[in-house]
Hints:
The complex is a heterodimer of chains A (462) and B (80). Chain A has helices at residues 24-37, 53-57, 76-86, 102-110, 120-127, 129-138, 153-163, 186-204, 261-278, 312-319, 323-331, 411-424, 434-440, 444-447, 455-461, and strands at 17-20, 40-46, 60-65, 90-92, 114-115, 146-150, 167-171, 180-183, 209-213, 219-227, 233-245, 248-254, 282-291, 298-305, 348-355, 357-358, 364-365, 368-369, 372-374, 381-385, 392-393, 400-408, 426-428. Chain A is of the alpha+beta class and 462 residues long. Chain A has 3 domains: 10-116, Rossmann fold (3-Layer(aba) Sandwich), CATH 3.40.50.20; 146-213, Dna Ligase, domain 1 (2-Layer Sandwich); 219-461, D-amino Acid Aminotransferase, Chain A, domain 1. Chain A has an 8-stranded antiparallel β-sheet with strand order 14-13-10-11-12-15-22-20. In chain A, helix 4 runs antiparallel to helix 5 (120-127), helix 7 packs across helix 8 (186-204) and helix 12 runs antiparallel to helix 13 (434-440). The longest helix of chain A has 19 residues, at 186-204. Chain B is mainly beta. Chain B has no helices and 8 strands. In chain B, the strands form 2 sheets. Chain B has a 4-stranded antiparallel β-sheet with strand order 1-8-6-3, with no helix packed on it. A 4-stranded antiparallel β-sheet of chain B has the order 5-4-2-7, with no helix packed on it. In chain B, a hairpin with a 2-residue loop joins strand 4 (37-43) and strand 5. The model of chain B has no long low-confidence stretch (mean pLDDT 93). Chain A binds chain B through residues 66-68, 70-71, 356-357, 365, 367, 395-399, and chain B through 10-13, 43-46, 66, 68.
Amino acid sequence: MTAARSGAELPPGRLQSVLVANRGEIALRVVRACRELGIRSVAVYSDADARAAHVRMADDAVHVGKSAASKSYLDEDKVLEAARSAGVDAVHPGYGFLSERPSFAAAVESAGLTFVGPPSSVIATMGDKAAARALARRAGVPVVPGSDEVASVDEAVAAAEDVGYPVLVKASAGGGGRGIRPAASADELRTVVAEAQREASSAFGSDKVYLERALQGPKHVEVQVLADTHGGVVHCYERECSLQRRRQKILEEAPAPGLDPSVRSSLCDAAVALAREVGYVGAGTVEFLVEGSGREAAFFFIEMNTRIQVEHPITEWVTGLDLVAEQLRVAGGAPLSVAQDDVVCRGAAIEFRVNAEDPDQDFLPSPGTVEALELPGGPGVRVDTALMAGDVVPPFYDSLVAKLAVWAPTREQALARGRRALAEYRVDGLPTTIGLHRRLLDHPAVVDGTYDITTLETWLAG
Amino acid sequence: MGSHTITSRTPGVFYHRPSPDAEPYVTQGASVSEGDTVGLVEVMKTFHEVKADAAGTVSRFLVENEDEVTIGQDLVELET
């Protein structure tokens, strides 16, 4: 928090120049926001990206290393040195890469520069599973029912009585879906805990496990929040992101179809309460699992992403806000441009992630050269991409190469517009997920909006 | 005695070891069977094991740990 600032001596609320510490479409997104706000943007680039669009379109660019991400975009020292040499007053981390590393945010702060995001201490707290869960409890936000660490099979069975079956046995040191086993009864739990302890011990060097209630067919729903350094915190409604493969989102929409208005209201209030409790600053996303439907639906906090999100364009479509511009305003010390009552959710928006992957070959990454490219256009269509015809998609970075986001007054019209835009979209030279999206829009659960986090993987396996 | 070269099936970054702190999959002089893992190539944040497509003894590595590789590039030379 910028505690030194009092209301009487507000800074002009404007950054002069920003280092865009990222690549691809999100770097271009930040460069564009800077241009519109009259802020000088400085790109960074690796060997592989010397001629990339984000470099061409920024006001200036600094080379930060070899092509491998660990030797360029993930190298904290090199990126910080680029910020110093370029003489910028702020660093925008985008998403991925260094965006959620407390050490990088702290280094930017120590260098006397502004990190476009929350304070490093907030990133650290929300990045620690146990600390984030404890903070949510303090803020009165429900978390998935679970136990403390259990040391024995008997302890696990006793704890499961409180948590409620079916449970998931999770390794404390696990992550990214590894070391998770389900158990539906006490008998099953006895076997599973013993196995889980053995596996955790060899895989993670610690046999500590805990229990969590296994939610039934939950939906992944997340709330966008914005906070400034003057105590202003607003939510920008929710995004439905249940269509995932291996925990990677592929299609998102706003608002969440079928979400009861009273549940939506409680969900959004919970996200604001959490952001206030942790002293949040900037744009952030509070992720929840929602179980059940109608007014009886229950929601549980899972984690907070302390950065701009890939799927932010659909929130921009339905609210009319420019979330990246708000980030830059807030980082410059200005208050948010909106109060809660000004944030209105209108119509429906859907985002389709275009990845350089081959859905017919188990989503094998497919770097290569774009031989020809035809982008969709017309009413209600937005494409965020840094990929131009003739460009090479290098093998070193994330496979996301574009985001198609459509808006229409109703969800039904947005689906029709999505189908139309996907039919116009053509990429020659490498396989992408565009064809997958065309087929996905015919899935009955996608058409009626009843899909959950198991739908996509079940469909792909079928 | 002949020689055989194991090549990369994808472009990316080559690693000698499964994780930064782990022991290398194989070292010079090691004998490998067909199907043994001899390295790892990272492509778009996913990791693909490089398997020996012949049996033999590792005579030398043709790329360093963390080197960038292209599709079809020679990685490991075996004495067969």
